[in-house]
């Protein structure tokens, strides 16, 4: 395998490992938010922000932890026939499914970027080179937080998952060639 592909795979693995380890701690943030929600509802005045902030923390935990989960092999897979196959046949099936995953993640990233642009108030008029900046999108709830931070996290998560999928595809190609990365 070319040197650049080995460097790419190792860099993506290291990046997703670090982000995934960070994302694990978001579960504690989520628990703290829910604990505060419980206390504020029973002792103080209920906080408006706790439910939505818990949802944002859960989305960040899930989206940023996805590439790490994929890297560690923690995703659900059907092993009825797959486990009985040789590593070369497994790599062939994995390469095929990763190609389908790349298409899916590309569409998801495209939609997430479009949604992020909308939440930032970016509009491209016909024929213009630069966007017009409008209002920032806010949630329609009573708390009304800006939505661009969580949409940015979603874009980052989809990009990291896309990069991890490309790294898996490179590994599968190396396995089909009889090499290891």
From TrEMBL:
Subcellular location: Cell inner membrane
Topology versus the membrane: Multi-pass membrane protein
Keyword Transport among record annotations: yes
Domain Tripartite ATP-independent periplasmic transporters DctQ component: 30-174
One Pfam family in the UniProt entry: DctQ
Principal location listed in the UniProt entry: membrane
Keyword Membrane: yes
UniProt xrefs under InterPro entries: DctQ, TRAP_DctQ
Highest taxon, organism lineage: Bacteria
Membrane spanning residue stretches: 21-39, 51-70, 91-113, 146-170
Keywords linked to the UniProt accession: Cell inner membrane, Cell membrane, Membrane, Transmembrane, Transmembrane helix, Transport
Protein family: Belongs to the TRAP transporter small permease family.
PANTHER family linked: 2,3-DIKETO-L-GULONATE TRAP TRANSPORTER SMALL PERMEASE PROTEIN YIAM (PTHR35011), SLL1102 PROTEIN (PTHR35011:SF4)
Function: Part of the tripartite ATP-independent periplasmic (TRAP) transport system.
Summary of subunit composition and partner proteins: The complex comprises the extracytoplasmic solute receptor protein and the two transmembrane proteins.
Protein name: TRAP transporter small permease protein
